Amino acid sequence: MTNHWIDIANSDCIFIIGSNAAENHPISFKWALRAKDKGATIIHVDPRYTRTSQHADVFARLRSGSDIPFFGGLIRYILANNLYFKDYVVNYTNASFIVGDKYDFKDGLFSGYDAEKRAYDKSSWSFVRDDAGQIKKDPTLNNPRCVFQILKAHYDRYDMKSVSAITGTPVADLQKVYQTYAATGKPEKSGTMLYAMGQTQHTVGVQNIRAMSIIQLLLGNMGVAGGGINALRGEANVQGSTDQGLLFHILPGYIPTPSAAMQTLAEYNEKNTPVTKDPQSANWWGNRPKYMASFLKSMYPEQDLDTGYTYLPKLEPGKDYSWLSLFDAMLGGAFKGFFAWGQNPAASTANANKTREAMTKLDWMVTVNMFETETGSFWKGPGMDPKKIKTEVFYLPCAVAFEKEGSISNSGRWMQWRYPAQAPLGDSKPDGDIIYELFEKIRGLYAKEGGAYPDPIKNLNWDVATNHIFDPHKVAKRINGYFLKEKTLKVGDTEKTFKPGDPVPAFALLQTDGSTCSGNWIYAASYTDKNMAARRDKTQTAMQAKIGLYPGWTWCWPVNRRVLYNRASVDPQGKPYQPEKAVIAWEDGKWVGDVPDGPWPPMADQKNGKSPFIMTTEGLGLIFGPGRNDGPLPEHYEPLECPVGENPFSKQLHNPTALKFTGPTEVHASCDPRFPFVCSTYRVTEHWQTGVMTRNSPWLLEAEPQMFCEMSPELAKMRGIKNGEKVILESTRGSLWAKAIVTERIQPFTVLGQTIHQVGIPWHYGWTWPKHGGDSANILCPSVGDPNTGIPETKAFMVNVRKA
C-alpha cells in the first residue's frame, strides 16, 4: 500500500477490483464505509455480485482475465475527455519524456521481441538523451514521440464498444465507472484503488497493477490523502514477509539478490546502483551500496565486506526460482529435501496434483505447522500409493500467532508489536525457537564433521537468543541496525559521535565502509531508544488529525512516513493541492504534517528541490515503464486458458512472455469444447488460506463445511443441475466434486457475440479434514504464471461442470 488503512476514509472515490473487500478484507471496508458516510462513492468491479457490490454505488461485472481492456478503456476515456490533472502529469510523471525511435508496437508485440527466447530485448524502449546525458522532454506534451502521445496512441484502440465486447461489461456500466472515477482527476479530489489476488493472479498480473498506476498518475492520485494504489493482503504479515526478503529475487529491504555473474561486491554495486544526470532527482536507490554493506555486516560483522559478499547465495543468470519453477524442478528430481514451513503447497499451489507428484521425488520433507496438512500427509492422499513413495516426512509442531512475541507489518506498512496471549501448547514451539535450535544443530555438525563450504555457516552472526531462547527484541534491534565502529556524523545541523552498539537513528546514516550494520534498511529507526513498533500514542497535530495520520501509533516504514510519495501532494511551491486534507505543507521554510519524502525544499527551488518519486531513477512517476518483462505499457492478452480465439486489439492472443512449462499436465484448454466455462477461485469469510486452521475449528467448519461451486441459474438449467446437488468440475489437470450453489450473483457474459458462463470455487479445502469436505480448488488450476513474478494464473482458467 502506498497509503494506509485509515487513509481510505479520506477518499472521494474508492475503486475496488479483484477483491470482495467487505467479506475478505473487512478492515479496509470499515474505512471505505467511513468515506461513504462523508459522501464518497464506492465502485466495485467483479465477475460476481458480492457483499462489497451491495454497498457499492456503482457496480460493474467483467469477465475474469479482461482487466486490462477495462483499464485501457478508462485510460482512453481520461485522455479523450481531457480529464487528466495536467500540472501533476507534467511536473510529476514521465509523460513528457521522449522515447527513442527504435521503440514500436505492432500486432500485439513491442519492439525487441525474440520469438525463440520468448523474451524482449528492452534496449529499444529507452528514452532519448541530450549531450549532457539528461532525458529529453517536451513539457507541452505535443511531441509525437513523448510518452503522453505514445500512451494516447496505444490506448486509442480501447474504445468502449471494443472493451465491452471483450470484457462482457455493458457499455452503460463502463460509462458509469469511467465517468465516476475520472472525476477524481481534479486538484481538490482524490481517488484510491484497492485490489487483491483477483488482480495479481494472472499471466498479466503485474501489468494489471501497472494499468492502475497509470490511471492514478494521470488523475494525480498518488501521494495524496485518500489516493494511492493499495493492496489488500491475504495475511496479516504479507507486507512484512516481502519486506524481509521472503521472495527469491530480493534480499531484505528490496535489495536485488546477487547473480553468480557478479563475482565481487564492487561489480554488484556497479550493476545495481542507478545513476542519473537529472539534478532534481533524489535517485534514492543510488544509496544502495550503503544498504548492501550494512546488510552484509548484519550477517557477518567480523568479516570484511568482500568476504561477506562471497558468502551470500547467488542466482544463476537467467534462471527462474519462483514458486512454480521450484516445484517443476522438484518434479524433475532436482531436490533431495524440502522444508514446508507454515505452508501447505499440496493444496495452495496451482496444478496441485503436479505438486503432490513432485513431492514423491524427494528423499525427505519437513513440515512445520499446527495441524496435519495435505502437504505433510500427501503420501497417503488421493491417488497415492504409500508403498511406492520414498519421501520421509518429519513433522515439527509450531505455535500459533497469539502464542509468540514479535512484530507484523500490515498492508499499510505499519510495524506493530504483539505479545503472547498464552504459552504454546504441548511440545509446540515458536518458529523463532525452532529456527534457532535447528541452526545451532547444523553449526554443531559442521564443527564436528566438517562439510562443503563451511565458512558462511561458522561465521554467521547468530546472536538471536537470550539464554538459548529466541529473542525477538535482539533480532528487531539488528534489523534496525547499529554502529560497529565509532563514527562522527552530521545529524541535521549538528555533529554527533556514535559509539559501537549505538542504534542507527535512520537509514540516511548507514555507511558504505562497514561501520554500520542493518538487517533491513527500510526498518532503520524502528527500534532506537525504544521499540517504536510497540508505541500506542494517539497524539496528533491539528493538521495530522484531519486525515488520521496517528504518527505515534506503532511505526511505519520508511522513517514513520504514512503516505509514500507525499511530496506529490503539493504544488511545486509546496502548497497542498487539497488544503482540507493536506498530507504535508511547506511552511516557514520547513515541512509540516507527515514525514516528507525527503528533506529537500519544494521543486520550485530548482537548485535544492527534488522530484517526488524518489525511488525512481529520474524522480518521476512512470507512466511508461521500460523495466517490465512483457512491455513498457499494459496490453491485453487473454489468459493462457480462455474461451475466445481472438484478441480484438491485436493479433497476439496470449502473453508472449508468460511463464510456461512442458509436461503431461501442462496442456492448456483454449476454445476447447470439452472445457467451455471460465472458472475463478476465491476466499470466503469463514475460512483462511488452505483452511489448515479454520477447517480444524468446528464452529467455522459448521458455517462452511464443504467445497462448493457457484453458478448462474442459466448454466444450472443448461446442465440440469439443482441447488445443493453434487457436481463434478474438470480441467485438463484433474477433477473434483463440489456442492452446487445456484445463484444470480453470477450471470452469463456476452463476449464477442457469444454467451460465456463463469463459475467460482473457494480454495480453502483439502482432503485431510473434514472427511467429506472435498479437495483443493488448485487441482484444476494451470501452472502458468506472470513473466515478472511467476505468480500463477488461478483467477481465469477453463473447466467443465457436470452433474455428479
TrEMBL record:
Where is the Molybdopterin dinucleotide-binding domain positioned along the sequence?
Answer: 678-797
One Gene Ontology cellular component annotation held by this UniProt entry: periplasmic space
GO BP = anaerobic respiration
Keywords of the record, alphabetical order, are: 4Fe-4S, Calcium, Electron transport, Iron, Iron-sulfur, Metal-binding, Oxidoreductase, Periplasm, Selenocysteine, Signal, Transport, Tungsten
Q: Where is the Molybdopterin oxidoreductase domain?
A: 2-440
Which superkingdom heads the taxonomic lineage of this protein's source?
Bacteria
Where would you find this protein in the cell? Answer: Periplasm
Classification via InterPro entries: Asp_de-COase-like_dom_sf, Formate-DH-alph_fdnG, MoPterin_dinucl-bd_dom, Mopterin_OxRdtase, Mopterin_OxRdtase_prok_CS
Q: Which family does it belong to?
A: Belongs to the prokaryotic molybdopterin-containing oxidoreductase family.
- According to UniProt, the name of this protein is Formate dehydrogenase-N subunit alpha
The organism encoding this protein is Solidesulfovibrio carbinolicus
